[in-house]
Each structure stands twice: as C-alpha cells, then as structure tokens.
Specification:
Elements (H helix, E strand, L loop, with lengths): L1 E8 L5 E7 L8 H8 L5 H7 L8 E10 L6 E10 L5 E6 L22 H14 L9 E8 L1
Antiparallel strand pairs: 1-2, 1-6, 3-4, 4-5
Helix pairs in contact: 1-2
The chain binds zinc ion (2 copies).
The site of one zinc ion has 8 residues, from loops.
Length: about 150
Amino acid sequence: MGRLFEWRCRDCGAGEGFLCGGGFSDFNPADVVEQAEQGDLGSAMKVLLGNGVPDGWTVQRENSYFECPSCGEVVLGISLKIDDGGNGWLEYHAIPEECPSCGESLRVGECVPSMSEEELSARCEGFVSAGCPKCGGKNVSASYGSWD
Ligand SMILES: [Zn+2]
Ligand SMILES: [Zn+2]
C-alpha cells in the first residue's frame, strides 16, 4: 500500500506525481541487485547485495523524493529497507548523482533529506493556492489517492 500525491495545471499541462511507500510486488526486486552490482547504490550496497540478496534476507524498495537544494525540483530516489533475517530493517536511501533538471551535484555532503508525505502534499497544495510554477496560471488542481 502506498500513497499518491499529484498536481496538474490545466492551462499548460505541467504537473508532478509522487508515489510514496511500496507495494508487495517490490520485494527482492531483481533490478536492485543489478544496480547494486553496478555500484549505482554506493559501495556499501555493492558489498551487501551485489552478489544477490543473501538467503533469508528481505529487501523492499520504496520511492523516496528529494528536493534539489539548487533549483527546487523534486528528484526521485529510491529507498531500500533491508531485513537480514530478524534483526530489523536497515534503511538506505539512494539519490541520483545529479539533479536531472539543473545538473547540480546532489551527493555533496549527502545531506539532502528525503521529503515526507506531508511535505509532498504541502508542495501540491502550495501550487494550488499560489498558481502554476511554470505558467503562473491559477487552474491548478491537486489529487490524492492510494495505490498498491
Ligand atoms: Zn501552468
Ligand atoms: Zn536541480
């Protein structure tokens, strides 16, 4: 089960959608192992998961969102929850190296915090009341829902 937050501008078509949380289909996803093996998730994950998910471990993937400190665009990262067989979840966040929108490096200091569901819904509400960030139009609507 996850939550969906979305805003759309009816004047220019701009908009964003955010899916929070994870579905059960995202347990032990094969492409996470692939990404870990290639080092896309950092050196620690390469050691942990690069040879496949160890026996008895559970890896769950969720979306996580980060606000680019430079341009304010929301950048999609991933968050992994790892259970090594009863010792609880290790949580790990991976963020793209560069902002896809402005090209600013996002890994400097690794201090960009992921956005909470409250912050994402507040971002949508903000554009509804302040107008579209792209065209300035007032025909912005927000919608919220659930997915699984
Ligand atoms: Zn617009
Ligand atoms: Zn940016």
